[in-house]
Amino acid sequence: MPYGIAGAVVLATAGLSINAMAASHEALIAEVYGGGGNSGATYTNDFIELANAGSGSVDLSGYSVQYLPGAPTASSKWQTTPLTGSLAGGGRYLVQEAAGTGGTKALPTPDATGSINVSGTNGTVALVTGSDPLTCLTAADCQADPRVKDLVGFGTAVVHEGNGAAAGASNTASVARSASLADTDDNAADFTAGDPSPQNTGDSGGTTPTAPPTTQPPTAPPATPAKIHDIQGTSRVSPLDGKTVSGVTGIVTGVRAYGSSQGFWFQDPNPDADPRTSEGVFVFTGSTTPTVKVGDSVSVDATVQEYYPGGQSTGVQSVTELTKATVTVVSSGNAVPAPVVLDKHSVPERFAPQAGGASIENLPLRPDEYALDTYESLEGMNVRIGSSRVVGRTDSYSEMWVTVRPGQNPTKRGGTLYKGYDDPNSGRLMVQSLIPTAQQAFPVANVGDTLSGTTEGPLDYNQFAGTYTVQARAIGTVRKGDLEPEVTAKQSASQVSVATYNVENLAPGNPQSKFDALAKGLVTNLRSPDIVALEEIQDNSGATDDGTVAADKTLGKLVDAIVAAGGPHYQWRQIDPVNDKDGGQPGGNIRQAFLFNPDRVQFTDRPGGDSSTAVGVTGEGADTHLTASPGRIAPTDDAWTSSRKPLAGEFTFRGKTLFVIANHFNSKGGDQAIDSRFQPPVRSSEAQRNRQALVERDFIESLEKADPKADLVVLGDLNDYQFSPAVTSLTANGRLLTDLVNTLPVKERYSYVYEGNSQVLDHILTSPSLSREADYDVVHINSEFAAQTSDHDPQIVRVRP
């Protein structure tokens, strides 16, 4: 999911850092002024100014500028102004927006005109391919939308690039880039406030879209006749990038006729002898629906472009595509070129070449050695997979993951296990469908099912997920496996059961069905644990950013659902965070909370714990206690900036003290994808988790120093793997705590499925006094199923203090 827990192996379009917004490589937003016509303003209109830092002209046809209020609610809508004309190299482009009643001076002649009423103090402006309004309302979601080419948040805007919004906007001041047009993906750093300085294409030396040129334009360089394999070349980057090509021929193999990234794939039926050069390529038509059909023989004149989904700064690989195309249909009804079969024989075991963290995009492809090179050498070509095991459920975007190497790290229940940074499972592929849902609904599958029959279509580099995808022109059917939700064992009278469950942004406004399903999971599948550490409990107003921090309605509604499901009447303990300081969905104020069954355990309440007061340890031996219960561990330490603070609580069970620490570490947002063009990819989010682990380890060591026999359970969503530096630091490699997932058989070590990798994000760790007899279970009820209540599986341990 996109907020409190980012999904795991990679960035993607889920769980993404605001710092990873793409750097603009074409037009970018240079200045924003929302004070036009306001009190004290000179200019009568708001405006948005674009600039081109490059030397080549940018065709703005099909682009738009869009505006979102600074504090969007669920009902907020992006307002849109379509653009026309072009933006010359080094030029400016002026978009005039709404007028006010004040001001004395008109703007220079605008290059485009709209009616957006831009706030003078805070808001977000985006440069977008296409004119369809954006739907994102958070920085992470806007970053995941490939239509967003540049984005500027100013004032107190929730949606912005980098660490903060641009400051200083007012009725008399705009926010603008420096003369160098620096674009570091941090609005606060790139923009400064100053007097509005609107420039149009005429003022800046560009080409006014409506006025004819007064001099003969320079002669464009002649187009290069080319074959598709000439365009694709022998590496990830086209040798003809940026050049105009003509007479490119082939047979249409797939058409994408929806959204703002429409186009078609075509393939040369007469390949060359080099296995490194793909014979297929994508023709991008934007929001314009292609008029070609599968089987058409076409000749294309176009410009070659390396497109980086989400922007180059994310580390994703590029897609070689043709833009600004003129397409001529030569004939129709032709046979589609024979597909390349993807299976264990054609896809290597090794995943990617290594470059010491540098880019691999200019390295010659070695498709016989590396899976990523195999897929790149087939980019845009017609491929086929036969019956394949599903390793990633059908999600809400109508996509699933299969493996074409069925023997590669299988889990006990049919998934593909992620065992380490150097073993990312090369056989995983995403499957999407080009077939209209009215003709054939996308198949619904769970992990362990089989996508049977034949699935065939162009091999794409998916612009949203940043990974290779079969765009199915023909898709198989799902043969169901025998996967069922698990039910754990019941604790004995002498055992106390402690569970962790990430309930995925639970808020009172969620459907009652979600509360009921969570309750069923806790009562039936987890057998009513004595203590439950919950992660991602939102405040009473959910994602509405209205200053609310209390969560009693959220917890009360869950407890009522548990009682209705036949479970105990749990009590709860938690600490309200400081508003908007703990990360997650803006306005949601997610936090951890304890549920406990008062008929089985007692909570030791000690006052003094609040959002900013650190819990400590007092006493020694059997008289060791927390200074506050509940209490937060080092809540003002920089390790917890924009992240959840650990919640510590003191319980008693049958007269014995049990300490429990509930966690939700920093997400993986901003990490480069495992199939990044940088190998090995940078896992930038690790730095904060490593710091968090060290801070918590200091607290644990102080507790165990006071009482070496202390019974301690540390649990929750650590957002990292059992072999990660953060987790091994927290356990001190087993000397301080035992990570119980490592006690399971290898094929059972996972609690989360992301992009077809079954992996560990959630953990239960126990002190030496509890580890020897710990009865531990990951209860698989969510992550493998198309119908799920949360994206995490809960875990439980039964111990005897």
Describe how the helices and strands are arranged.
Elements: E1 27-33, E2 45-52, E3 58-59, E4 63-69, E5 79-82, E6 86-87, E7 92-99, E8 112-113, E9 123-129, H1 139-144, E10 148-154, E11 174-177, H2 187-190, E12 191-194, H3 201-204, E13 224-225, H4 228-232, E14 244-256, E15 262-267, E16 280-286, E17 297-307, E18 319-331, E19 340-341, H5 371-377, E20 382-385, E21 388-392, E22 400-403, E23 428-433, E24 450-452, E25 455-462, E26 467-472, E27 477-479, E28 496-506, H6 512-525, E29 531-537, H7 552-564, E30 571-574, E31 591-596, E32 602-603, E33 617-618, E34 625-626, E35 631-632, E36 647-653, E37 656-664, H8 686-706, E38 712-717, H9 725-731, E39 738-739, E40 752-754, E41 757-759, E42 762-766, H10 768-771, E43 775-778, E44 795-799
Parallel strand pairs: 7-8, 13-14, 16-18, 19-20, 23-26, 28-29, 37-38
Antiparallel strand pairs: 1-2, 1-11, 2-7, 3-6, 4-5, 4-9, 9-10, 11-12, 14-15, 14-17, 15-16, 17-18, 20-25, 21-22, 21-24, 22-23, 24-27, 25-26, 28-44, 29-31, 30-31, 32-36, 33-34, 35-36, 36-37, 38-42, 39-42, 40-41, 43-44
